[in-house]
Each structure stands twice: as C-alpha cells, then as structure tokens.
C-alpha cells in the first residue's frame, strides 16, 4: 500500500512539472518563467493557503482540545526550525540554513493529503480543524527563519536590535499575506467566500504546477551545487524529519487522544514545505539556494515519509 501511495504521489502533475523544470535545464532549453509572473504566483499561493485555512477554522466549534492543538502546532512550527538552523549551520551558510530550517519547520500540503489517504485506508478519522492547523503551521516557521536570518546577518555587522528584527519578520510581505489571508478567511461570511472559492481552490493546483516548474528551473540551474554539499543535506533530509515525527507521535498524547489527529501531527512535524516557504524565501531571501532545500524536501523527505515514516508513526500511536 505504501508503494502504491508513493507511485500515486510521484505521478502528481505538480511534482512532474518540477521534474520538467530540472529536465529543461539539463537539456539546455531556453524555457523560463518571467520574474514578474513568478512573483505573482508566489503571492497567490500564500494567499490561497492562508484563506483556505481560515475558512476551515471558521467552520469549527472552538473547544479546549482545538485550542491546545492549535498551540501545539504553532509550537512545533517554531521549535523545529530553531533546532534545525543550528544543526544546518555546521555545513551551510546563514541564508541557506535559515531557508532550509524554515522549510523543515513548515509543512507539506501534499504530504498532508497523502496522510489523510493513509488514514482512510485504515478507516481512521481525523478532525477538520487539522486542515486549519496545517495552515497555521506555515507562518511561524517562516517568521523564525527570517528572524534567524536577520540576527546572524546583523551579528556579522556587530550589532542588532531584537525589537527591530521581530518587527521586520512580522511585517515581511509574505508573512503579512499568509496571516492576513488566514484572518480574513476566518472572518469572511461563508456565502460571500464562495464567490472567490474558484480562485482559491480550483485554480490552486494549476498555479502550483507552474510554480514548481519555476522552482524546478531554479533548482536545475543549481543542481551541481546540491551535490557539492556532499552527504550532509541527504542525511539531514532522511534522519531529522523521521526523528521529528517520532517525537511528535509520542508527545501528541498530551494534546489529544484521537489517533487520527495524533498521526496528522506526526506527519506535519516530519514533512517539509516546498510551496509556502520557497514562495516566501523567493521574495524575502532570494540569495538562498532553492536548489538545496527543494530537492531535500521533494526528492528525499517526501518519499521517505510515505514509505517509511507513515507506518512508524502509526505504529507508535497505536
């Protein structure tokens, strides 16, 4: 079953467009996405993710477990990039370490959807508010990544003020957009929100495919630099997410007794973002190398979770 899930997701059109982007570079094609279009698509993806998460959250009846779950998700999304950054700094520069740490602190929507399929196969239910928690976990990792990036940049200059750094991270365009969209989605009238649903939902996968095509082109141009990093990023992308998922599978018992929700938490902690974080870093830290953290997330962590991670997390929780 795990192999069929792996095959199904590796034949996802969006992921295949990422491969097409890399292939275009390898065959020396002149295929290119205009920079203005690329920036618009990045902003669109952040907007759609935030708005859909806010809509999901607005449909839930708040109780203590949901609030605890939201807090737990945000805490995971802040602690994982913090720990990852200092580990990554052993081999990587500040920009690449911050972007990669943010990617591993954030979450993968495709891995989340695959986890839901896994639960359905095992006839296990998970609550709807987990979709909102997935959206909530996008921005803390980006904020932490930007704070770390700014601190260590300033440290080289010999001075920094934490207040101004925090303000810069919170007022960053990508963070404002995803949090603002989440808030608007939560407040928006359900009937009126239906009017823009075709834009936020039905067009999402198409824009995602073009975005990953662009990311594939960017990664392909820097593919040699990925292998130049040696074994370190490969081992990190295999081992650290697995550790994060296992720890979260155990720790989530303190948040919720629900097997499905605990499994989703473990998967979210173990996944790595290749949509929101690359979109944010393309705007906020263009010097960070997408040819490093995108192959790590897509080519290593994603299949590892589906083939090895899911059964381990599920067995622990059971």
Task: Describe what this molecule looks like in 3D.
The protein has 318 residues and is mainly alpha-helical. It contains 18 helices and no strands. It has helices at residues 2-10, 13-26, 35-58, 64-88, 94-105, 109-121, 129-136, 138-157, 162-170, 173-187, 190-193, 197-202, 204-221, 223-228, 232-251, 259-270, 276-284, 290-317. The longest helix is centred in the C-terminal third of the chain and has 28 residues, at 290-317. The chain is globular, with a radius of gyration of 19 Å.
Entry summary:
The chain contains 18 helices and no strands. With 318 residues, the protein is mainly α.
Uncertain stretches of 5 or more adjacent residues: none
Individual helix count: 18
Helix-strand topology string: HHHHHHHHHHHHHHHHHH
Shape: globular
**What proportion strand?**
under 5%
The structural class is mainly alpha
Topology:
Layout: H1 2-10, H2 13-26, H3 35-58, H4 64-88, H5 94-105, H6 109-121, H7 129-136, H8 138-157, H9 162-170, H10 173-187, H11 190-193, H12 197-202, H13 204-221, H14 223-228, H15 232-251, H16 259-270, H17 276-284, H18 290-317
Helix pairs in contact: 1-18, 2-13, 3-7, 3-10, 3-13, 3-17, 4-5, 4-7, 4-8, 5-8, 5-18, 6-16, 6-18, 8-9, 8-17, 13-18, 15-16, 15-18, 16-18
